[in-house]
Amino acid sequence: MDIIIDAHTYLGDILYPDGGKLIEKKGIKKKRIFDPISISEACLHRSYGLDDLLNRLLARWVTIAERQRNLTATRENFRRSMDEAGVMLSACMPIPPHVTFEDIKMAFQKDQGIIPFTGIDYTKDYDLEAKLAVDIVAGAKGLKKKSSLNRLQA
Fold first, then answer.
1. Is 103 exposed, middle or buried (0-12, 13-18, 19+ CB in 10 A)?
2. What pTM value is reported for the model?
3. Which DSSP letter does residue 1 get?
């Protein structure tokens, strides 16, 4: 069997404080809502030249659907999705301060299919080199740099 490594994934609620608490919750399912993201996926993300119109008409629903997807980012769901897709390993990114390397590391200790990355908390001032050195020794395999969420906060 071939080993598949997913490009990158997320665990926990990356949008709100203490998002790492979501990781170990059990039985979490996405609410049944109108989900234009799933429709777009089913259409292989073809817009038929309607990108701008669709974005304007569906922006609110896309935001709601993204939030609902985010609330399902548990380790249990992560493993189920990986198994269904035949993915053996997945690089998992923290989004500090909401989900930290420590959160991802704890998940990795329970599921070796998670490749734990570390990240930079742009909301505080600290010795970044020292923190990254500690995380590398603790098992971080890579660094998640600035994300769009971090750009909004910085």
1. buried
2. 0.79
3. -
